Amino acid sequence: MADETNQESAAPAVEATAAAEPQRENRGPGRGRGRGGNDRGGNNDRGGNNRGGRRDDRRGGGRGGDDDGGEELIEKLVHINRVSKTVKGGKRFGFAALVVVGDGKGRVGFGHGKAREVPEAITKATASAKKTMVRIPLKEGRTLHHDGKGRFGAGKVNLRSAPAGTGIIAGGPMRAVFESLGVADVVTKSVGSSNPYNMIRATFDALTDQTSPKSVAQRRGKKVADLLGRGGATVVEAEAAADAIVE
Predict the structure, then answer these.
(1) 74-207 adopts what CATH topology?
(2) Which of 72, 76, 161, 182 is the most exposed place for a label (fewest CB within 10 A)?
(3) pTM of the predicted protein model
Protein backbone atom coordinates (compact mmCIF):
# COMPACT_ATOMS: atom_id res chain seq x y z
CA MET A 1 0.00 0.00 0.00
CA ALA A 2 2.84 2.37 0.83
CA ASP A 3 4.42 1.71 -2.58
CA GLU A 4 1.18 2.41 -4.38
CA THR A 5 0.72 5.63 -2.42
CA ASN A 6 4.24 6.77 -3.28
CA GLN A 7 3.70 5.95 -6.96
CA GLU A 8 0.41 7.86 -6.98
CA SER A 9 1.97 10.85 -5.24
CA ALA A 10 4.96 10.79 -7.58
CA ALA A 11 2.81 10.67 -10.71
CA PRO A 12 1.23 14.13 -10.19
CA ALA A 13 4.66 15.52 -9.38
CA VAL A 14 6.05 14.15 -12.65
CA GLU A 15 3.07 15.48 -14.59
CA ALA A 16 3.47 18.90 -12.94
CA THR A 17 7.17 18.87 -13.75
CA ALA A 18 6.48 17.85 -17.37
CA ALA A 19 3.84 20.55 -17.63
CA ALA A 20 6.22 23.15 -16.22
CA GLU A 21 9.13 22.20 -18.44
CA PRO A 22 7.49 23.13 -21.75
CA GLN A 23 6.54 26.45 -20.22
CA ARG A 24 10.15 27.09 -19.22
CA GLU A 25 11.35 25.96 -22.61
CA ASN A 26 8.90 28.20 -24.42
CA ARG A 27 9.50 31.07 -22.06
CA GLY A 28 13.27 30.65 -22.06
CA PRO A 29 13.92 30.68 -25.83
CA GLY A 30 11.32 33.39 -26.26
CA ARG A 31 13.06 35.53 -23.72
CA GLY A 32 16.41 34.76 -25.32
CA ARG A 33 15.15 35.72 -28.75
CA GLY A 34 13.50 38.80 -27.37
CA ARG A 35 16.50 40.16 -25.52
CA GLY A 36 19.46 38.47 -27.06
CA GLY A 37 18.25 37.65 -30.54
CA ASN A 38 15.62 40.07 -31.74
CA ASP A 39 16.63 43.06 -29.67
CA ARG A 40 20.30 42.67 -30.34
CA GLY A 41 19.71 41.81 -33.93
CA GLY A 42 17.42 44.79 -34.24
CA ASN A 43 19.94 47.06 -32.56
CA ASN A 44 22.66 45.75 -34.79
CA ASP A 45 20.49 46.22 -37.83
CA ARG A 46 19.45 49.68 -36.78
CA GLY A 47 22.93 50.62 -35.65
CA GLY A 48 24.56 49.07 -38.68
CA ASN A 49 22.16 50.65 -41.11
CA ASN A 50 22.27 54.02 -39.43
CA ARG A 51 25.99 54.03 -39.05
CA GLY A 52 26.44 52.71 -42.56
CA GLY A 53 24.07 55.36 -43.90
CA ARG A 54 25.82 58.15 -42.06
CA ARG A 55 29.21 56.89 -43.14
CA ASP A 56 28.14 56.64 -46.79
CA ASP A 57 26.57 60.11 -46.69
CA ARG A 58 29.67 61.54 -45.12
CA ARG A 59 31.93 59.95 -47.68
CA GLY A 60 29.73 61.03 -50.55
CA GLY A 61 29.61 64.60 -49.24
CA GLY A 62 33.37 64.65 -48.86
CA ARG A 63 33.93 63.53 -52.41
CA GLY A 64 31.37 65.94 -53.74
CA GLY A 65 32.99 68.81 -51.82
CA ASP A 66 36.48 67.92 -52.96
CA ASP A 67 35.42 67.59 -56.55
CA ASP A 68 33.67 70.96 -56.35
CA GLY A 69 30.13 69.76 -56.87
CA GLY A 70 30.97 66.73 -58.99
CA GLU A 71 33.13 68.68 -61.42
CA GLU A 72 35.85 66.70 -63.13
CA LEU A 73 39.33 67.86 -62.19
CA ILE A 74 42.69 67.34 -63.86
CA GLU A 75 45.20 65.74 -61.51
CA LYS A 76 48.93 65.80 -62.28
CA LEU A 77 51.49 63.91 -60.21
CA VAL A 78 54.58 66.11 -60.29
CA HIS A 79 57.08 64.42 -57.99
CA ILE A 80 57.43 61.53 -55.55
CA ASN A 81 60.25 61.55 -53.02
CA ARG A 82 61.24 58.60 -50.86
CA VAL A 83 62.32 59.56 -47.37
CA SER A 84 63.72 57.40 -44.59
CA LYS A 85 63.91 57.62 -40.84
CA THR A 86 66.60 55.75 -38.97
CA VAL A 87 65.29 53.96 -35.89
CA LYS A 88 66.71 51.42 -33.48
CA GLY A 89 65.74 48.42 -35.62
CA GLY A 90 66.84 49.89 -38.95
CA LYS A 91 65.19 52.36 -41.31
CA ARG A 92 61.58 53.27 -41.88
CA PHE A 93 60.76 54.38 -45.40
CA GLY A 94 58.04 56.81 -46.34
CA PHE A 95 56.96 58.70 -49.44
CA ALA A 96 56.17 62.36 -50.13
CA ALA A 97 54.02 63.25 -53.16
CA LEU A 98 53.54 66.59 -54.92
CA VAL A 99 50.29 66.91 -56.90
CA VAL A 100 48.78 69.70 -59.03
CA VAL A 101 44.99 69.84 -59.52
CA GLY A 102 42.99 72.07 -61.87
CA ASP A 103 39.68 72.26 -63.69
CA GLY A 104 41.16 73.39 -67.02
CA LYS A 105 39.06 76.58 -66.87
CA GLY A 106 41.15 78.95 -64.79
CA ARG A 107 41.33 77.23 -61.38
CA VAL A 108 44.42 75.44 -60.12
CA GLY A 109 45.99 74.34 -56.85
CA PHE A 110 48.86 72.25 -55.55
CA GLY A 111 49.44 70.16 -52.46
CA HIS A 112 51.82 67.63 -50.96
CA GLY A 113 51.28 64.67 -48.68
CA LYS A 114 53.37 62.13 -46.78
CA ALA A 115 52.57 58.52 -45.97
CA ARG A 116 54.13 55.10 -45.63
CA GLU A 117 52.71 54.02 -49.00
CA VAL A 118 52.66 55.81 -52.35
CA PRO A 119 48.88 55.65 -53.04
CA GLU A 120 48.06 57.08 -49.63
CA ALA A 121 50.59 59.90 -50.09
CA ILE A 122 49.06 60.77 -53.48
CA THR A 123 45.57 60.76 -51.97
CA LYS A 124 46.63 63.14 -49.21
CA ALA A 125 48.39 65.44 -51.68
CA THR A 126 45.35 65.50 -53.97
CA ALA A 127 43.01 66.38 -51.11
CA SER A 128 45.36 69.17 -50.01
CA ALA A 129 45.57 70.53 -53.56
CA LYS A 130 41.77 70.64 -53.93
CA LYS A 131 41.49 72.72 -50.77
CA THR A 132 43.99 75.34 -51.97
CA MET A 133 42.69 75.96 -55.49
CA VAL A 134 42.81 79.57 -56.71
CA ARG A 135 41.25 81.27 -59.74
CA ILE A 136 43.59 82.86 -62.30
CA PRO A 137 42.22 85.28 -64.95
CA LEU A 138 43.00 84.13 -68.49
CA LYS A 139 43.01 86.08 -71.71
CA GLU A 140 40.58 84.56 -74.22
CA GLY A 141 40.65 81.44 -72.05
CA ARG A 142 44.00 80.32 -73.51
CA THR A 143 46.90 82.52 -72.27
CA LEU A 144 47.93 85.05 -69.63
CA HIS A 145 46.90 88.70 -69.70
CA HIS A 146 50.43 89.99 -69.15
CA ASP A 147 53.97 88.91 -68.34
CA GLY A 148 54.96 88.10 -64.80
CA LYS A 149 57.77 87.03 -62.52
CA GLY A 150 57.65 84.76 -59.52
CA ARG A 151 60.10 83.77 -56.84
CA PHE A 152 60.20 81.38 -53.94
CA GLY A 153 63.45 80.66 -52.18
CA ALA A 154 66.10 80.03 -54.80
CA GLY A 155 63.52 79.33 -57.51
CA LYS A 156 62.75 82.06 -60.05
CA VAL A 157 60.38 81.87 -63.01
CA ASN A 158 59.45 84.22 -65.84
CA LEU A 159 56.05 83.94 -67.53
CA ARG A 160 55.08 85.54 -70.84
CA SER A 161 51.80 85.57 -72.70
CA ALA A 162 51.94 84.18 -76.23
CA PRO A 163 49.84 84.34 -79.42
CA ALA A 164 47.58 81.49 -80.46
CA GLY A 165 49.39 78.41 -81.72
CA THR A 166 52.47 78.86 -79.56
CA GLY A 167 51.69 76.02 -77.19
CA ILE A 168 52.97 75.47 -73.68
CA ILE A 169 56.70 76.14 -73.68
CA ALA A 170 57.53 75.02 -70.17
CA GLY A 171 59.26 72.14 -68.54
CA GLY A 172 58.59 69.72 -65.75
CA PRO A 173 56.51 71.03 -62.86
CA MET A 174 55.57 74.27 -64.63
CA ARG A 175 54.01 72.39 -67.53
CA ALA A 176 51.80 70.44 -65.14
CA VAL A 177 50.53 73.71 -63.65
CA PHE A 178 49.60 75.25 -67.00
CA GLU A 179 47.99 72.07 -68.32
CA SER A 180 45.82 71.82 -65.22
CA LEU A 181 45.04 75.54 -65.37
CA GLY A 182 43.83 75.36 -68.96
CA VAL A 183 46.49 77.58 -70.53
CA ALA A 184 47.15 76.69 -74.17
CA ASP A 185 49.78 79.31 -75.12
CA VAL A 186 52.53 80.49 -72.80
CA VAL A 187 56.30 80.92 -72.78
CA THR A 188 58.16 80.33 -69.51
CA LYS A 189 61.71 80.30 -68.25
CA SER A 190 62.99 78.88 -64.99
CA VAL A 191 66.08 80.49 -63.49
CA GLY A 192 67.75 79.18 -60.36
CA SER A 193 66.65 76.18 -58.36
CA SER A 194 65.22 73.18 -60.18
CA ASN A 195 63.61 71.84 -57.01
CA PRO A 196 60.02 71.00 -58.01
CA TYR A 197 58.58 72.40 -54.77
CA ASN A 198 60.34 75.74 -55.28
CA MET A 199 59.40 75.86 -58.96
CA ILE A 200 55.72 75.18 -58.23
CA ARG A 201 55.55 77.82 -55.52
CA ALA A 202 57.39 80.36 -57.67
CA THR A 203 54.96 79.69 -60.53
CA PHE A 204 51.98 80.23 -58.25
CA ASP A 205 53.59 83.42 -56.96
CA ALA A 206 53.68 84.73 -60.53
CA LEU A 207 50.16 83.53 -61.35
CA THR A 208 48.56 85.12 -58.30
CA ASP A 209 49.89 88.51 -59.49
CA GLN A 210 47.92 88.24 -62.72
CA THR A 211 45.22 90.88 -63.15
CA SER A 212 42.63 91.30 -65.87
CA PRO A 213 41.61 94.60 -67.51
CA LYS A 214 38.13 94.13 -66.08
CA SER A 215 39.38 94.02 -62.49
CA VAL A 216 41.66 97.02 -63.07
CA ALA A 217 38.80 99.00 -64.58
CA GLN A 218 36.54 98.22 -61.65
CA ARG A 219 39.23 99.20 -59.18
CA ARG A 220 39.88 102.53 -60.92
CA GLY A 221 36.26 103.27 -61.71
CA LYS A 222 36.75 103.29 -65.49
CA LYS A 223 35.55 101.35 -68.48
CA VAL A 224 37.57 98.51 -70.00
CA ALA A 225 37.52 100.23 -73.40
CA ASP A 226 39.17 103.30 -71.87
CA LEU A 227 42.09 101.22 -70.62
CA LEU A 228 42.51 99.26 -73.85
CA GLY A 229 42.32 102.42 -75.99
CA ARG A 230 45.48 103.86 -74.47
CA GLY A 231 47.77 101.69 -76.58
CA GLY A 232 46.98 103.60 -79.76
CA ALA A 233 43.93 101.50 -80.70
CA THR A 234 40.85 103.19 -82.04
CA VAL A 235 37.64 103.42 -80.06
CA VAL A 236 36.00 100.70 -82.14
CA GLU A 237 38.93 98.35 -81.69
CA ALA A 238 39.06 99.07 -77.96
CA GLU A 239 35.35 98.37 -77.54
CA ALA A 240 35.62 95.15 -79.56
CA ALA A 241 38.56 94.00 -77.44
CA ALA A 242 36.67 94.89 -74.27
CA ASP A 243 33.66 92.85 -75.36
CA ALA A 244 35.92 89.87 -76.13
CA ILE A 245 37.38 89.85 -72.61
CA VAL A 246 35.77 87.18 -70.49
CA GLU A 247 37.39 88.16 -67.19
Answers:
(1) Double Stranded RNA Binding Domain (3.30.160)
(2) 72
(3) 0.64
